[in-house]
């Protein structure tokens, strides 16, 4: 009799030790997808009961025992849970942001020993490809060309990065939690520009690419890309040369002009009057 009492006390102590949280596992899932919460039962165990619960009062959400499986205990999980009665793992479908919390699993084996583990579920939104919008096409500036673009992400709380090929002479960007504006300056207009907007959040990365091919007449390229100074310089030079030539050969020019017009006509300002003859 004494041996039986000692055995029961030992079993009770064993249950008490195993009843504490043996391990805590962190699992990351994404909105709309399926995730499996591991029970981490001892491999040598043959399970006799599985209880998955939430909150501090251990509200059951999925259970299994001799009476069968019940995964419809809570309306917010209805139709979204599946329980593996061999491993004790709980599968959750159509993840939602509000599913992020601690989940407790209480396992009982065929020898009446139990094990309690905890799983912390983190739910995130997957990054989606950002959208690149050309706000302002190549426009003329004093010394080159300016290109203005906007990159937006449907998910907030991301970091923006830009990749530009060929490299711009000067680039600046102004970013918020969901948008980024890029101002790229080129001293000359390239044939095409490859722009990539990258969004990052922790270990997740997404990107989108925009290839802007530029096909414009050569004259327009020069006009648009700061060649107005060269054109103005050439025009001023030609005008100056013409003025110098006119001044240097002004005598010849006047002589040729007089030959065609006549010297008398140059100084005649009124009609010629014949003098009257007087007889004494």
UniProtKB/TrEMBL annotation:
Chain ranges passing through the membrane: 227-247
Signal peptide limits: 1-19
Record's subcellular location: Membrane
Key word tRNA processing present: no
Keywords: Glycoprotein, Membrane, Signal, Transmembrane, Transmembrane helix
Main location: membrane
Keyword Transmembrane on entry: yes
Protein name as annotated: SLAM family member 5-like
Organism from which the protein derives: Poecilia formosa (Amazon molly)
Lineage: Eukaryota, Metazoa, Chordata, Craniata, Vertebrata
